[in-house]
Specification:
single chain, alpha+beta, 3-stranded antiparallel beta sheet
Length: 97
Amino acid sequence: MSGSSQSSKRGTQRDAHQPYEVGSIRQVDPPPGTEGLGWHKYVIAQGGVNVIQGFRQGTLPTVELALDEIVAQMNERRKGRRGTVNLIPKPKPKPKK
């Protein structure tokens, strides 16, 4: 493997460990097939690796609040569950005679 490929892979792995963040929000015309006012296009990014684009209808403050909640949930899911898990089943007690 060349040095640049290894460097690129390491950069990708580092980016995948970064949290998701709202990259941008801007007001736009309604997406095709929709109606109404107050549409916003947003970008959620995790480093340079994962980029999610979408549309959300509402006022800028309500869209910002909704995206903050979505990003928080995505980051929680990314962390995984931190509780203890007993993967070794305990033997069943023998019935008393």
